[in-house]
Design a protein that fits this description.
This protein has 622 residues and is of the alpha+beta class. The chain folds into four domains: 307 residues, 2-Layer Sandwich (Nucleotidyltransferase, domain 5); 74 residues, ATPase, substrate binding domain, subdomain 4 (Actin, Chain A, domain 4, Alpha-Beta Complex); 107 residues, Sandwich (Substrate Binding Domain Of DNAk, Chain A, domain 1), CATH 2.60.34.10; 95 residues, Up-down Bundle (Substrate Binding Domain Of Dnak, Chain:A, Domain 2). Helices cover 37% and strands 25% of the residues. It is built from 15 helices and 29 strands. The strands form eight sheets. Strands 1, 2, 3, 4, 11 and 12 form a six-stranded mixed β-sheet that branches. Helix 12 runs antiparallel to helix 13, helix 12 packs parallel to helix 14 and helix 13 runs antiparallel to helix 14. The chain is elongated. The two termini are 38 Å apart. Bound molecules: adenosine-5'-diphosphate (ADP) and magnesium ion.
Length: 622
Amino acid sequence: MTEKQASQEIVIGIDLGTTNSLAAIVGKDGPRILHQRDGEALIPSVVSFLDDGSHIVGEKARHRAVTHPRHTVHSVKRLMGQNIDEVKQRESDRLGYQVVQAKDSLLARIDIDGKLYTPQEISAMILGEVRRTAEEALGKPVKSAVITVPAYFDDAQRQATRDAAKIAGLQALRIVNEPTAAALAYGLDTSREGTVVVYDLGGGTFDVSVLKITQGVYKVSATAGNTHLGGDDFDMLIVDFILDAVKEHIASDATIPPEAMQQIRLSAEQLKQQLSASETAALEIDLDLEEPVHFTLSRADFETAIRPLIDETLACCHSALTDAGIQPEAVDEVVMVGGSTRIPLVRQLVEKDLGRKLHVELDPDRVVALGASIQADILSGGTKDLLLLDVIPLSLGIETVGGAFSKLVTRNSTVPARATEMFSTSVDDQTSIEINVFQGERELVRDCRQLGAFKLRGIPPMPAGLPRVEVTFLVDADGVLTVTSREQRSEVEASIEVVPSHGLTRDEVKDIIRNSIKMARDDFLARDLVELRNKANNLATGTRRVLAMPEMPFTDEQRQDLETDLAHLDSLAKGEDIAELRAKCDAFGEKTQALADQAIGEAIKAELNREQSKLPSSPQQP
Ligand code: ADP
Ligand code: MG
């Protein structure tokens, strides 16, 4: 549905950044940034609340950060879709404003003088500003957008982003991964196949992603990074230098007022940016002393200070490559993203380390927005020959008999994804079945996350195994999962749409995958047991059904013999001994098969052989 937008509709691309946000659109001459009235492209992602309860967004808000820390919300992206304990753990007291727990959930809220805001609402204020800027630049209303998020954002964080857009009066037609957008902006797509490393060093975060491109399809193979490493840290190193210089001019016990600290911080950032273009940078710091303090910093000193932080980013690159199973030599392209990659030393070290010429032709803090606008153009019908796909982070499936997890859509499948499998009932005359939807990498549902459940009712009574229940999983381009089940003979149908209410953090996803590898052997055995038990039950049910048929020419002895076998099979199926159960299943299977071959016609053979290995569990009896 979201695919078919009227072709004349305006769709913009938005980079909703931790530090800065901005919009772009594809015009007649290709993608271009939508500037503010003052010519600036970047809108600082900062909201500051004034005494009268109103708020300001952007550069002016940023300037209030140090003087009004409790009323100025920055880096709200870090709070999107997060629980209060996740925020407390990671952010400790780095955020100057107050973050509290929501009354009705575990989610984080921003407390401004007792009034609580959701991170979505604050993000919506930023998006509102981006939208206004775009409307002014275009002279037309804007209602739809493609919005980018970090590749590691989970379902809840993506949903929160979508919600923020809705509050801002924007329909988020698609949520796109930032590295994917960056690769798209560089046109690293169409015909070529290859591996792209996207190195994104922004204001407060570092992300590296390894993308694999095959026939225009993007897959994020691995991500790594540090959510607290970026340009702000470089600024703070310069602030330390400045404070050292200032302290020579003031009394040792004098404290520096917040207004002055604010000034120093902003000056530090200016110095840093100057050093990207020149070998030295200087400024006057006016602290109301007799004379302003003169401060000079050389690029060499700055580089020495930041070197360890850059080395850390390089280590992340290698760990992402290892995770993706790629040798550094096999990397085809390296794309530089984020304002901090303007620093010459960063470029130099990444180029040397990865041994590749870097893509730095586009402005690194605009490339994500430009890429988003290209995707927006595709959705509004402008560009037709490009497809853009993202991947599903964890496998999706349903519970089958005995608590087994039957995966329909496997991890790393690209979205949109669709999968259909046939199931049946496990009990005679079952008129409804329950479909339990799970997410995870383990073999049994008890080790996975339940996403939802629903019942398919109104199945006409039939012997077990006869109903043909088709279960379809559809993950749309936005990652929303719809599960539909349909019994083919009666055509009854039921479905649910799952928008996971609470997603997982990047670390949790990692843990889940790590655990699935660690537990692989145990899982395999547990799964084996479940499957053998199902096989035993099916054999028993089939045999009992045949025994009950009056026309069967069994002797009393044969009946007695089979009953003994059945009792033994039942008791083994209740136990844990896999080897013995397998042996019994095999032997009994052969025996009933022989009986069938010998005396009984084709119909009965079919009855005994009926494939019933995959049956939805929790069958609901009428
Ligand atoms: P984010 O993706 O986190 O929103 P950006 O990509 O906009 O952030 O990057 C912002 C950071 O880039 C800030 O720390 C800013 O100081 C830094 N930056 C911008 N221009 C330069 C430059 N010329 N030299 C060094 N750092 C820069
Ligand atoms: Mg960014």
